[in-house]
Each structure stands twice: as C-alpha cells, then as structure tokens.
Amino acid sequence: MLHTFHYSLKTLFRNRMLLFWTFAFPLILGSLFHMAFSNISESEKLTVFPIAIIENDSWQENEFFREAFSALGDENNADQLFKIRYADRPEAKAWLQNGEVEGILELDGENVLLTFDSEGIDQTILKFAADEVAQKKQIVEALSQEEIKAQLAAGNFAIDADGIREKIEARLAEEKDTLQTAVSELDYVMIEYYSLIAMTCLYGGILAMTALNQNLANLSDKGKRVAVSPASKGRTVLASVAASFAAQLLGLAILFLFTIFVLKVDFGSHSGLVVLLAVVGSLAGLALGIAVGGLVKASENSKTGILIAITMFGCFLSGMMGITMKYVVDKNVPWVNKLNPAAMITDGFYALYAYHSFSRFWWNVASLCLFSAVLIILSACVLRRQKYDSI
Amino acid sequence: MTVFKTFWRVWNQNKLTVILFTMILLVFSASNMGTQETSTSFTAKRPDILVIDRDGSALAQDFTRYVEKFADQPVVEDSENARADALFYNDADLILTIPQNFGARFLAGEDAHIEVRKSTNYNAAYAEMLISRYWETAGIFRQSDRTETELIAAISETLTWESSVSLTTELDTTSLQKGAYFFNFASYSILACVIYIIAFVLSSFREQKIQKRTVVSSMNLRRHNRILLLSNLLYSLILWLFYMLLSLLFVGRAMFSAHGAFFAVNAFVFTLCATTIAFFIGTLVQNKNAIGGVVNVVALGSSFLCGAFVPAEFLPEPVLKIAHLLPTYYYIHSNEALTAVEHFDRAALTSFFLNCGIQLAFAVLFLALTNFVSYKKRKIA
Known about the structure:
The complex is a heterodimer of chains A (391) and B (381). Helices cover 69% and strands 7% of the residues of chain A.
C-alpha cells in the first residue's frame, strides 16, 4: 500500500496540469484579489469633495448659511464635508460641466437652489447639508419666536435680543447623545479569500480524480495494469486517493502561507479551527473528484471540465466574483448554498470571523462531512466490483 | 464542409464551458435586475436602514416613518445572526434598535438611547447623519414643554423643508448603469467562451496527427485555413448575437436607444478582439489540458484588473496602470463613459471610437503575434 501511495504521489507531481490547478492557480487568483480589493474599503468611505457656491446678494445677506458652510468647508474642521469654491453663475456652471465640482449651491432670497449634473452620494450629501442648514435656520427662528412670546407673556416688553440668542445657542449646543453607535469594522473583502480557499479545496478534486483514473482500466493504461495485477483493488484505490489528499493538503498549506505572509490576510485567532475547516473542505473536494471520476462516464478531459465547471460555479455562488452574491443566494434561495460545498467552506470561515458563537461553524463542518460521506459512499457503490468485458 | 463540421463537433464536446460562463452571466444579471424606478429628476441616494422598534410609542413610530421617507428598509429575518449578516454584506448600512419605553423616557428628559450598529461605508455615514438630524431636532424642541403630539408636529414641520434641485442631465442613469454592469460583466463571459472554444478547436486541428493528414490531403491548405477562420468568426458572431439578446432581457429599454447601440458596437469590437486573443492562445498552447488554466487566468485576470467585477473607480492607481495594457480596460472604459454621455457630440464619439480603435489595435497585434508563432511552429517532423 505504501508502495502505491509513493508512486501515486510521484505520478501526480509529474502532471503539470495538476500542479497548475492545485498550486499555481490559487496563488495567481489570490494575487489578483489582493490587487483588485486592496483599495475597496477605503474607496467606500466618505471623502471631502468640491462644490461651487454662487456669491450673489442673497448669499452675502444670509449670515446663517455663510457661517454654516464656512465651517463645513473648513480644512481644520474634523467634520469637513466640502472643498468650497466661490464664483458667479456662468463660471460655476462651467466647472460643473467640466466635472471640477460635484454641485452648485445658490441662494435666491430664502430659497436654496442646487444644480447637479448627475446623481450620486456626493450630490445627496450636499442636498442633505443644504437642507439641514435651512432647517436649523427655521428652528432658530421658531425658537426666537417662542422666546419672544414667553418674554411678552411675562410682561417684559423690552426684548433682550442678546439674551435670547445666548439661550438659543445654549439649546442648540446641548449635548446630544440619543444615538449610541457601534461601528462594525468587519471587512467583507475577506469573503473573497474564503472563496479562494474553498476553490483550492474543491480543485483538489482534480487530484483525486486523476489518481482514481489511474486505477480505472477503461481510462488509462496504468489502470489496465492495475486491474490485471494481483494487488487488492480497494487498497490500491485507497492508497492513490490518500496520495492525492496529501498533495491537496500541501497545495492548501502553500496557499495559506502565501495569503498570510505575502498578502497579509488575517484568518483570526482560531487557527486550529481554520485548519480543521480547510482539511474537511479538502475532503469534500476529494469526494467531489472521486464522484465525478467514478460516476460520470466520459473522457478524462471532459471529467476535468465538469469538475472545473462545478467548482467555478460553486465559487461564483459563494461570492468569488462579487462578494454580495453569497448573501443574495443565502437570502433568496438558501437551499442552493446548503448543497454547495464552496459556500459551506466560505460560510464556515465567515462564521469564525464574524460570529462569537461556534454553532454555525460546526454546522458547516458537519454539512461538509455529510456531503463527503454521501459522495464517497455513492462512488464506492459504483466502483465496487467493476468489471470490463472488453475495453 | 468537413472543416466546418469538425469545428462544430469540437464545439459540441465543449459546450458545457459555454453554458457555464453564460450561466454565471445570467445569475449575475438576474441578481442585479432590481426594480429601481427609472427617473430623470434628481433622486437622492437611499441608504438601507433597518429599524427594530421595541417601543411602539407615537414618537418611535413617527421616527420610523421619517426613516422610510429617506431610506429603504431591508427585509431581514428577525434573528441576531440574520442582522449581523445583513450588516456585513451591506444589505443594511445601519441597524437601529429602539428599546422599550424609549419614547416616554425621551419625553421626560431622562437618559434614552437608540442602539445604532453601522458599517464603515459612506452610505452608513450618510444614514447616520439622517437619523441624527431627527433626534437633534427632537432634542431641541423637547425642551419647550411640548406634548408628544406637539413635538411630532414640530419635528415634522421642520424636517419637511427641502431645497430645490435641478438636474442638468436628462439621462436615465439607472438604466444606463444597469447596462454598464451587464456589459462589463459580459466581458468575462465573452473572453472565457471565445478563448476556450477557439483555442480548443485550434489545438485539435494542430494535433500533429491531424495536421499531417490535413497537409497531405487534397484540400487546399489556404481554403482549409479560410474555412477554419470563418467558422471561428461565425461562432464569435453567434455568441455576440446571443449576448445581445440577453442584454435585451436584462438591460431592457435602454438597449433600444442610441446608448444601447453603442453598448452593442463596443461589445462587438471586444468580441472581435477576444477572437484574435483566442487565435493567439490556440496557436501558442498546444496542450489541451492547459487551455482551461490559461482561459481562467486570462479571463479572471483581465476582469479583476480592468473593473469587470469591481468598479474601476474602486481600483488602486497602480492596478489601473497595469490595466491600460489590456484591451478589456478600453472596453469597460467605453461602457462606463456611455452612462454619462448626454449627447453624442464630437468629444463623446471621439472618445468612444478611440477606445474601439485601441481594441482593434490590440486585435491586429494579436493577429501579428499569431502569425509569428504559427510561422515558427510550422515545421513538423
């Protein structure tokens, strides 16, 4: 058995196509992810953007707006939202057309006019800020009226304007802590790396399938020789599959080392569970490879094609080519990802990363074990006592 | 006819790959279908805010109505795990929990807090500003001894004030964005389907045994090559036509506009370019087993680097610089630019045709490389 294991390993390592899928392709893809996603979290944060304000008479007269926007455009203010450029209308329109500013703010008496040439988050923020300043102005006016009414009601006909202003300013500045905010710093780009590990686990199936094909008399000359040899078929197959599993784990180990030390991906503190999930995931890949190898009657090339197709489609559904795809599938057609081994692996890693409890993680591990067991048993039933009348 | 038939026989053996990559495009497009209403007036971005109201007071209900006015409420299962997932995958930018007795405590001026969980993106930042505005206004008016009903009326009166917005564009940006998403992602499927099939066919015809038979046969070699070339082009054309039919389904009305026609022309030029890449790879790679690997690296690589999966605006500068060396970049650049083109004036047309020209230049380059490699490999023992 050790002899078969040794030679199966040698044969597998001489197959360049296998080496590519198991060792090189995941590293290439990981590097691509790193290049494409390294900026995404930063790009999604709110940034200061340029706007134009038309400096007309209404603007000059409206002190409330001038003060508010000067604060929102102040570079020394931590809450700066805009980079403000002042101009007359034709110049501002030219800037807008050339894409130098995201929007124009113009005051016409009490009316606030905004001009945009597209819709987006920047335009929405400018509208929000303009609305809020105008609403604050309204609040101040309402509060002033309230105060004046109160003073008149108290028989005080000499209105103390400064006193009212101070009172209102104090009310506006009062501590507001109604919202208790917790920011989730979890990075959803991690799903990409999880699906990469899932892909590598499942591509390992090509190794198992090739190892199995070497024992099938209808597919290879080696298979014919094995079939007529006195060696036990079960033990030979087992040794070949074990060799493929060892090669698969080696490929996975290289990928982990590459992602952790080169791409600086943080798999969290549960290293033991991460390794366990990767090993169980590889077992699922192996089972898939054996199933395609044993259950599908086709040439070796077609079988490889089928295995790659299943793996790629499974990884696509688990978020490899668009992170939210996994969530969309989980939410709308949950049974699809319950049958998809790539999603089970990705979800297991996600559960370790985002959840405090381990129940979801163990559920995924159990699902993978069940998936592997079903496929291996099915394949064993088909492969058992297979005989060839003629080849 | 023999060559033509053989082409389709090889296609038939490998149709699974075409089906797979088309399925991926279909699933992607279906998940992006969304039922956003098309509009040419300004529509503010609507963040996704999930409100869990455990209070039920009139104030909490009014706040929920306010949130619904400015934000979408995602439908999320009532469990802690489902909410954590929604936040992680940006289905909800903000999750708010209004605790029991919040309304009463707030009105009494006692400590009353709403628990907010948010992600780090700009939608979440905007969503938080929106809800802060409500509670700041409520806080200011609360101090004037108003009843709950009076307080709600005062908040509502203040927060209904809005600026007037004029949009200088009349473009239906939502539909055009959808078009750009579809065609950008289609670059992946087109590249993969075209390269895989053509490279496989070419390598089949270049198997030494087959090639020797072809050379000694009575068939004129030029005619053989011409039929092979036309079969490849016919396949690419059929694939392009099929994807255009899919675009009618997924992009919809926008495909019947000038923008739609430009999307289609751009995709046609890209398919031609992909065909020449396929010629090159098919000539270079003789080992059929290696084709799958090469297709995946080329298709996934150019899609990730050029912005087919991740919008180009999110890609880091050095990656975009590398992307300039790939034809997909110019294809995607045109698709993105089309979403903002209001009138097809000289500047817009120049930019569009320049990008098409660059793709065609790549096509010529790949043809030249194919000829060179083919010339070097012509001699067989």
